[in-house]
Specification:
The protein is of the alpha/beta class. The chain has seven helices and five strands. The protein has a single domain, classed as 3-Layer(aba) Sandwich (Rossmann fold), CATH 3.40.50.
């Protein structure tokens, strides 16, 4: 039986990469992080792409990456936090696999990302205000797209991974019955 793709969405700092790796290992699937893949292919980090191409240039590259990566089979894909802003991305993700929203508050995001210089949207005088704004803008899109929503707040990745696996198993049982 072919395994359905799993796409992890959510804000920066929610744990998509860490949890995605754990899920892929547990499910015997391939793990891909769209931001890491983009950096690998361009040979530069995301802040550099933002610097030279702006957010619009980055989003176009991200759109192309999601279109390609979501076509693969048997993949756990960790996406960038802003992936849901693009309608094509939302369509590709919802149509090509199960979407898991890793939820965490802007406060938790700040705790997890405040020392990370690889996040261009946070290079601002008030990163906490920026996180709150991004959350208000994106949370409704995450919720609309998600098949499963998991709270990652103040939880170890192993606990979140276990809950996702349980929820996937429950929904698979319902689908068969």
């Amino acid at each position: 039986m072919k395994q359905q793709n799993l796409f992890l969405i959510g804000p920066m700092g929610a744990g998509k990469t860490t949890i995605g790796r754990q899920l892929a290992a547990r499910l015997g699937m391939q793990f891909v992080d769209s931001d890491h893949e983009l950096q690998h292919r361009t040979g530069v980090d995301i802040p550099t792409i933002f610097e030279f191409e702006g957010e619009a240039g980055f989003r176009q590259r991200e759109r192309d990456m999601i279109e390609e990566l979501s076509r693969r089979e048997g993949v756990v894909l960790a996406t960038g936090g802003g992936v849901v802003l693009d309608a094509d991305n939302r369509r590709h993700l919802s149509g090509r696999g199960r979407v898991v929203y890793l939820y965490c508050t802007p406060e938790q995001q700040f705790e997890r990302t405040r020392h990370d210089k690889n996040r261009p949207l946070l290079q601002t005088p008030d990163p906490q205000a920026r996180l709150r704004t991004l959350f208000q803008q994106r949370d409704p899109l995450y919720r609309e797209l998600a098949d499963i929503t998991i709270i990652t707040e103040k939880r170890p990745a192993t606990s979140v991974t276990r809950e996702i696996l349980q929820r996937l198993e429950q929904s698979a049982t319902k689908d068969q019955g």
